[in-house]
Structures are given as structure tokens and as C-alpha cells.
Amino acid sequence: MIDRIMLVMLCSTAIAQSQSPQFHHLHGDVVRDITFVDSDRGFTAEDGGKTRFTTDGGETWGYGAIQNVLTSTDLQVRMRRVRFLDSDLDRGWMVGEGGVILKSVVGLDGREWSDANPFSRITDLRDAPLLCGQNRAVQHDIFMISDTEGWIVGEDGTVAKTTNGWLSWTSLVDQVVGVAQPCDEDPRDFYRVHFFEDSSPDAPFDHGIITSEFGLVYTTSDGGTTWAEVDVRADAGLVCPLPGANLEFWDLAFENPSISTSPGWLVGGAGTTNGYTFRTSGGGVTSTWSQSQCHEFLDPVAVQSVVSRHS
């Protein structure tokens, strides 16, 4: 049952610190993401390559340590997403700018993280400043469905899958979008990826969804082999008019994230002054979306994320 839905605005409010960072950080103290695996243990992804942890429900926080750093400047980036597989602290991943992937160190309860891809950073499809395929990606999300298989999405055509435990990644953006994404034509941005565990008894995680820009999401019912484009604006029967600016879907959440028919929400914005929320009664893979609310926020704030809590 939903007992709370919270719209989160990004801000630069610092979390209480209980120990010093492990290396010099950049970009201030903006917290980009926060996740709790239970009522006590939580983790952040922050600007400057920071991560913090709490073991008392957020009363106190300490910095996580970073091990096996190839170069410290590689990790002085904005970390944007932290996720754990089945609430297992040995199976945590963090992604952000610079194509960096961090992995929680086994046995240390998320207090220490290692540089998981120092020699194979995730790249995007920009053609500047380096050649196409050589620019390090801005990653917005990671979703691992096992220790070896998972997905990453981000800006400028970043959609990648691993089947060997994040050692190598294959770009699948053309497969998702359905057409080639040339480097010189502003490849599409992607913000969230989610797969549902209940898809079928023999093939869990068949149903999935990726959020994008231009009012679009992409859905799959065969584990990501094929994808369908969904224009949420056309689906919704709009309650209020959308401006001409690009509508980007920055986050989504479901009442029960394991169930593909669970009610869910999409949030995003058009530019920086208009925030929108959309709702689906059935997971958004096989059901439609309806616009639940629109706001004109004071510049330059727009809705950034939605969090659902269920019991």
C-alpha cells in the first residue's frame, strides 16, 4: 500500500558528516540520489565522487571509501545513481559522469567501494570533443538483474548492457530506439531503466521500461530483445497543455517495483520551469499513462524524482 509519495527537489543541503572524505572532491555537496535498503541503512550518490552511508536511519552519516582508484581525477565527478540488488550490500553499484562505475566491496556493508571499470569507461555517441565512441558518458541509471547481467542508461545515446558482470558493455541504443542514432544528430538522452522481477516464472525480468526525452518511454516484454516506443503525451489525454519545450522523464517509481502490473508514476519537466507527473494503473509496460498533475515551478526548479514507499 502506498503510504507516501514524495517529490524530491535537488538541493545543495549537506548531510551531517562524521568522518573526512578519502580524496579531494569537486562540485560541492549536491546529493543526486539516495536509497535505503531497509529502515536503518541508506546510501547517497553525490557530486565530486562522494558517497555517504547511514546505519541509523539517517541520524548520522559517514563518508564511504573508494578503493582501487586508477586516478583520483577519474572519480572527481558527479555520481548520479546508487542501487543495490535485492538489498544485498555486497551487490551495490553506483554510476555518474565520466563513464565511471563503482561497485560495493564484498563484506564491508557498503562502507567501501571499488572502481569497477578503470580501463573500460562507458562511452556515449557524441562526436565532440573526441571522436564518436570515445567520449565518456554521463550515466543516469544502472539496473542489475543479477551479478552478471544489467543495463546502464544515460545521455547522448547511452544505453548499454552487460552479460559478464560489468567487465564489458554492449551499446544497444539502436535496438531500443529502433533506428540508428548518428553521432552528429544529437543522440537521444535516457534517464531511468527498470525491469520487473515477476515477468514470468521461467523468465523473470522480461518486462522492462526505459525513460527518455521528447515525452517518450520505451518498453520491452522479452527481456530487452525488442522495444516499443510509447508517446506518453499522446497516451495521457492531457489535463493541462504542455509547452513546446522538450519533455524529459527524469524518474519513475512503482507501488511494488517487482510487479509489472503495479501502479506507477513518471515525473519530469520541460525546460526548467515546468514540472509534470504522470500515473499508470498497471506498470506502464502494457497499460497506458495518464497525466495526474502539472505545475509551473519557480525558475530554475523542476521536478527531479519521485519516491514511492510500500508495505
Fold and architecture overview:
It is a single chain. This protein is mainly beta. The chain has a domain at 21-237: 7 Propeller (Methylamine Dehydrogenase, Chain H). Helix content is 3%, strand content 38%. The protein has two helices and 23 strands. The protein has helices at 173-177, 232-236, and strands at 2-8, 31-36, 42-46, 52-54, 62-63, 65-67, 79-84, 92-96, 101-104, 112-115, 139-144, 150-154, 158-162, 170-171, 190-195, 208-212, 216-220, 228-231, 247-254, 264-270, 274-280, 289-296, 305-310. The strands form six sheets. Strands 6-10-9-8-7 form a five-stranded mixed sheet, with no helix packed on it. A hairpin with a 3-residue loop joins β16 (208-212) and β17 (216-220). Mean pLDDT is 81; it is low at 1-27 and 297-302.
